[in-house]
Amino acid sequence: MVNILLISSQPKLTDVSIHMIEQSDGNFRVCDTVSTVRQARTWLSENKVPDLIICDVELEDGLGFQIFGELDIAPPVIYCAASRQYAMEAFANNGIDYLLQPVCEESVRRSLSKFSKFKEFLSFEQTIDASAGSRLYIPPNTYKSFLLSYYKDKIIPVSLEQAEYLYYNNCGVTIHTADAKYETRDTLNNIIVALNPNVFFRANRQFIIHRKAVKSIRQYFGRKLLIDTNIATPEPVIISKANASEFLRWVEGIHHNAMPVQSRRSA
146-266 maps to which CATH number? Predict the structure, then answer.
């Protein structure tokens, strides 16, 4: 149920407005009505913030925009006014729609439908964000042991114990073992956070390397490091100056399990 606070300067039309709102969709309910800026501020300070506010721009003691100036809330608002004079200001003050008075039932229905779509979109975005966030958090000791490779109509589990390195180019990510390579549909950013950081290191934007793949390390231009690997790589594996010290600590087996995910991703 969507709770609506109705802020109207026209008490005689309040009952009509409530009827139009609640008849337009059974999911909408007017939880209360007030008629001035002062009353609205008091109500919003003492009650749970409503899902939606329908507010006249011109009220007895000021403009509807003044209600929110001193309140740390930002509920969506449908403004109603006798002219288009305040339209730009309305959309700069939490406005999601602007209705011209006298308001008809059809305009109310369209406006509430717009709010419903807006709310649905935000809920979808939050779900996506939460899903992405859950992929970034891997509880300790639950790192992946296999990655899935796709070839024609087959899905092949590739043991990470066999992997020497993972490589990204414009065609995608490939898993390289001592005697084969496998294509995967994931990204290096998603993969690295699911791997044991004591075993795998994000060398740069192209490579994730296994500890066993490191044959030797050479000083490179600009205090970078050049990694010699046990099997050939499509291009040189270079560690940036910024990540050189961290890489050397990793090679020595010094690793902080609490290292932020962002650090691992951007290495």
Answer: 2.40.50.1020
How many CB atoms within 10 Å of residue 71?
13
Q: What is the CA radius of gyration of the chain?
A: 30
User: What b-and-e string marks burial along 35-56, b requiring 16 or more CB atoms within 10 Å of the CB?
Assistant: bebebbbebbeeeeebbbbbbb
Tell me the whole-structure pTM to 2 decimals: 0.48
CB atoms within 10 A of CB 119: 15
The sign of the torsion formed by the CA atoms of 27, 31, 18, 71 equals: negative
Per residue in 217-261, pLDDT (tens digit) is 999 988 899 999 999 999 999 999 989 999 999 998 875 443 433
What number does CATH give the domain 2-133?
Answer: 3.40.50.2300
Q: pLDDT for 82-102, tens place per residue?
A: 999 999 888 888 888 999 988
Cα separation values, 87 from 54, 56, 57, 82, Å: 14, 12, 10, 11
Whole-angstrom distance, CA of residue 86 vs CA of residue 91 = 9
